[in-house]
Amino acid sequence: MPLKVNFGGTVPFSTIDWRGKASMVIFLRGCPLRCIYCHNYKLLEDPNYVEQEEIEAEILKNVGFIDAVVISGGEPFMQPHAIEAIAEFVKKRSLFVAVQTNGFYPAVVEAMLKKNLINKIFLDVKAPLSDETLYEKLTKVAGVAERVKNTLAVCIRAGVDLELVTTVFKNLVGTEEVKRIAKEIEEAGVANCSYVIQQGRPELVPERVIADEDEFSREELKELAAGAYHAAGLKKVRIRIRTREHGEEAV
Ligand code: SF4
Prior knowledge:
By secondary structure, this protein is an alpha/beta fold. It has a single domain (4-250), classed as Aldolase class I (TIM Barrel, Alpha-Beta Barrel). Helix content is 34%, strand content 25%.
């Protein structure tokens, strides 16, 4: 039976989703979380099932211009068969594959990594992994932090190229939380990993529930990142910031 994919659209060419690579981004719809600051909330409801071939046709339009395909969402690991089919198709064309995930499905991630179809995982660490209360406040779902912790452990065991991402807003996830996250990921035993602190953007948040004043400026983010770097004594983690104005920068 042909595979149906709950599909959210594509960005045909991106140089910001995977640093150093020209990528096509494929969005899969649906997510088990309901983050209060979700920038992709239009992908959470209203399914849009298409044949897998439709996505393959989109990829073929871009094959000559890209090095990689990034599968994003929503939460892509809700549809492991879709990831597998897309990744197999992409690998046959000698392109790299990455998946952006919220870490909610550690067992699925583990099974997929064993198939050797994914080159890189971008994992959201939305709050300290020891803080289920804050995780629940952010995602509206209980028990998420433990799952993300397990996904991080799975990725470390598999040795997959890993990038961790935290979106920050003042009065929600800020200086103290980022320090704790940095310490936790260093202690988790990552071998060689980037940690990106991403400027949360109130204008992209549904119903503007986060005030404009809660956005960190670039200078504030630099300070926050430097503080986390020193407080956590990072050795194996490279820290970066991502802002609207300047994109990604090493700190
Ligand atoms: S995990 Fe990502 S896509 Fe899902 S609700 Fe949260 S921010 Fe939105």
